[in-house]
Amino acid sequence: MAQVTPRYVWGLINPTVGESEQPNDKTERLLPTDVVFVSNGLGITDYTVEGVEEAMGRYDDLVTDLVNRGAQRVVLAGIPISVQLGRKRVLELMDYTQQRFGVPGDAAAEAVIAAMQHLGVSKVAVGSRWADQVNDALIRYFAEAGIEVLTITSEGQWAQQAFEMSFEMGVRLAFELGREAMRKAPQAEALFLPGGAWRPLPAVPILEEDYGKPVFTNGNTRAWRIIHDGLAPAVSGWGKLLATP
């Protein structure tokens, strides 16, 4: 089989070593095969402020590794990491990455915010499984971007519980918490299902059909970044965002 020459190489810094947020399985292949993902991990112990601070000490080395492997943009994956750092610091980190390493920096929460702004969304319901402390940080982060969280659910999860979830449990939770959030805030303009470990993408088209509103996830907002930049075609069948570049 002939080797595909990459059109674009996207670098991911995942929360844990060995974790994959890469959309390589058939249920999440949203982009052409010549958009290639390279990844490494922060080795985070937990999504507490202390855990995030300790892990971020490895950021420079991880970016260097990804750039050396051809990454043309580097994204800091993990919504809890973004929100625990705070929006000011994340934006500064994105600028620092461009200036220090010569490639654009990105972060999970910023991709979500950009996608929401693209569709004109300013009031959201959040189907979250995180602990309250992480949820509170997410609410503050979104507020700084002009996005109001009308309601947010909680399953009390920290990092370990997230990493231990099976695919089936994650998809089930995505449906349950997404529907709970929409019941509590039917006036919301959209639904957000944060987190990569639970693989919520299969829930997106069904929940959009149920409520008639766009559903955002880590995965579809990251793919939208590439589509929006003209590096991949729009995708039908996986929700409004990916079909609206």
Provide a descriptive summary of the structure in words.
With 245 residues, this protein is of the alpha/beta class. The chain folds into two domains: 8-107, Rossmann fold, CATH 3.40.50.12500; 110-220, Rossmann fold, CATH 3.40.50.12500. The chain is built from ten helices and eight strands. It has a four-stranded parallel beta sheet. α3 (79-85) packs across α6 and α5 packs across α10. The longest helix is centred in the C-terminal third of the chain and has 18 residues, at 167-184. The chain is globular. 46% of the residues are buried. The model is unreliable at 19-27 (pLDDT under 50).
SS-based class: alpha/beta
User: How many helices in DSSP terms?
Assistant: 10
Q: What general form does the structure show?
A: globular
| Average pLDDT over all residues | 90
Low-confidence stretches: 19-27
Question: How large, in whole angstroms, is the Cα Rg?
Answer: 17 Å
Distance between the termini: 32 Å
Count of β-strands: 8
- Major sheet strand order: 2-1-3-4
Strand content: 15-25%
Largest sheet, in brief, is: 4 strands, parallel
What is the CATH first-level class name of the largest domain? Alpha Beta
CATH topology of the largest domain: Rossmann fold
Helix content: 40-55%
CATH architecture of the largest domain, by name, is 3-Layer(aba) Sandwich
**Helix-strand sequence:** EEHHEHHEHEHEHHEHEH
How many domains is the backbone divided into? 2
